[in-house]
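Sequence only, no structure available. Ideas?
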Amino acid sequence: MISKKLTTLLLEHSFISTQLSKKMDSLLSFHGLSFTEFVIMHKLNTTKGGSLSRINLAESVGLTASGVTRLLAPMEKNNIIEKIINPRDARQSLVMLTSTGEELTKYALVSAEEGCKSIFSLLSEEELNQLTVLLNKIKC
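Reply:
I predicted one. Tokens follow.
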């Protein structure tokens, strides 16, 4: 019986995660961004030194390296990020926000924070703390 509960819990979590991503996509579309692009931009913006290798960026946001590469191409074309090429090893090239990307991140963060307030408005501060603790326990 417990395995059915766990399976149901995982399926519900997946559904909720998808719904939250869709809501954030909708809120961030005003800035011309998807939620996944925002996650990448936020990670670059909050990383010490402001740059990461494509592989480290992928690991830190829970995507594959090829998935990040596909996302970065249009972001580079739109002058949101720039690549710092390592001439000896392309795998070690770094990615960082441009000044345009930094400004866009700042404005998108306001929308994301307002969206989060709305999404989690039904939870008390104690419930939010408990949810954070529980989710961190199962973080892979």
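Residues 2-28 form the longest helix (27 residues).
Hope that gets you unstuck.
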